[in-house]
Amino acid sequence: MPGKSVYGTWAVLCAAAFGLTGCAGGNSDSPVSAPGATKTPTTATLEAGAGLMQDKPPLRALDTYLDGFHFYNGRMSGQMEAHHYCSALNEEVFQCAIFDGNTSAAKLMGVEYIISKRLFEGLPAGEKQLWHSHVHEVKSGQLIAPGIPEVAETRLMENLIGTYGKTWHTWHTESGQALPYGVPQLMMGFTADGQIDPQLVRERDSRMNVDSEARKRARASIKSPAIDSGADAWQKGQVWQVKEPAGVHGHE
Length: 252
Known about the structure:
It comes from Pseudomonas citrulli. The chain has 252 residues and is an alpha+beta fold. Helix content is 32%, strand content 20%. It has helices at residues 4-24, 41-53, 57-60, 117-121, 125-128, 135-139, 150-160, 198-208, 212-218; strands spanning 64-72, 75-88, 93-99, 108-115, 132-133, 164-169, 185-188. It has a six-stranded antiparallel barrel with strand order 1-2-3-4-6-7. It is globular, with a radius of gyration of 18 Å. The two termini are 35 Å apart.
């Protein structure tokens, strides 16, 4: 995987080519509004002050924006768009905060950890069942890095295609939850054409002014690595999921 110096270069290219707004891509609003009283002037003032006076190294490190799609492990009909804000801890470990949109009102709905093929191969067999491959997400054009130049995005995808991700969603806003009900749910990535709802992709592409099919064609030359047989375990009927407590509807 690329190191921080590579991500820094992409950030500079992005800012120079598009400006900070362009790098974010088209606005994607959260599908829900959280209940609660409107912010008071005091809260707004405190937030502004904290923004100016407090340093936030972990947040500043989330310098790469990826947009893709997930589904619930064991329930492919539960599909949603996921906005990833990520940082590279080193060449082989990547961490992402996942939101349901890319505006200031977006809800934090989960996390994804991404590791290299080498690290994945060293995991216990049971642990591998929790992880998904990224080959199809890259080759299909579904996974994008909004706003950065095509050459930089292609280089990024070349580095991501052989990685594996473990994703948990904690707030299921795609089902209309105004609050984070239920238990965390394990998510998976798509592995073949015909699995994702094409309307999801069309809506994303229109909103962000991207062409997933064009990206698919542009990535045809990216070599597809062999996928470890322990990943994407749902395809072999090995589905693992956290059960909801009695009386809690959660993500259903």
